[in-house]
């Protein structure tokens, strides 16, 4: 009986009449090392299928004949395809008011702290790894109206240029997660036939910028609040340690750091103090 999977030339197999491209070990190693070097994202053997699927989309889009050709493209036109490659491997799962307890803490505890301590009535917040924008918009809705006459600014950054474009548009098909009173106040009047637009009064307090967290940070001032949720899980411990130290330096004394529900600073050497569920204070 003939084998169901017959090797072909050019890094592919013939499987039940369908040609399936193969990602050789050398190609996997090259792509995973490139991802780590450029973004800090760790792609080990357990994520091989994930890498295969996402790079395959680029190969089809570019009409290349396999992984060897794609790796060669990255080498030949390094800066041209690199951005698309990094966009392809980043994970952008997000939602409005995800991990709602964080926003309750922000309103009831953190803002009360700042009302007492920030005599200049300035508040600076950073959504690091903002994805398609649901997180910074949720932060803005939580803060807006709570601090009348305050100077509030939110920096929202991500490595992925594609999701940043979506975030800047503020156009969503689904508003699941947004409390009804916020929908009425900030979204309902902007409804149109293809979805919903976030209102300008929310948009105007947010600046969306592309930023690699492992590169130099151009921000000069410190922040009162940093949200960096479900980002550390993609880094090794050495990278996490360096990043947490930089977050500590970038926060004002008394400022808050919000991490994802599965993240912790327990194994790291840090001066942060745990004050809530994955919430830390400098």
TrEMBL record:
It comes from the Bacteria. One of its GO terms (biological process) is methylation. S-adenosyl-L-methionine binds at residues 92, 94, 98, 135, 158, 212-213, 229-230. Its EC number is 2.1.1.80. The keyword S-adenosyl-L-methionine applies. It is an enzyme of class 2 (transferase). It catalyses: L-glutamyl-[protein] + S-adenosyl-L-methionine = [protein]-L-glutamate 5-O-methyl ester + S-adenosyl-L-homocysteine. One of its GO terms (molecular function) is protein-glutamate O-methyltransferase activity. Gene3D superfamilies: Chemotaxis receptor methyltransferase CheR, N-terminal domain, Vaccinia Virus protein VP39. Residues 16-282 form the CheR-type methyltransferase domain. Keywords: Methyltransferase, S-adenosyl-L-methionine, Transferase. InterPro entries: Bact_Chemotaxis_MeTrfase (IPR050903), Chemotaxis_MeTrfase_CheR (IPR026024), CheR_C (IPR022642), CheR_MeTrfase (IPR000780), CheR_N (IPR022641), CheR_N_sf (IPR036804), SAM-dependent_MTases_sf (IPR029063). It holds the Pfam family CheR_N. Methylation of the membrane-bound methyl-accepting chemotaxis proteins (MCP) to form gamma-glutamyl methyl ester residues in MCP. This is Chemotaxis protein methyltransferase. It comes from Moritella marina ATCC 15381.
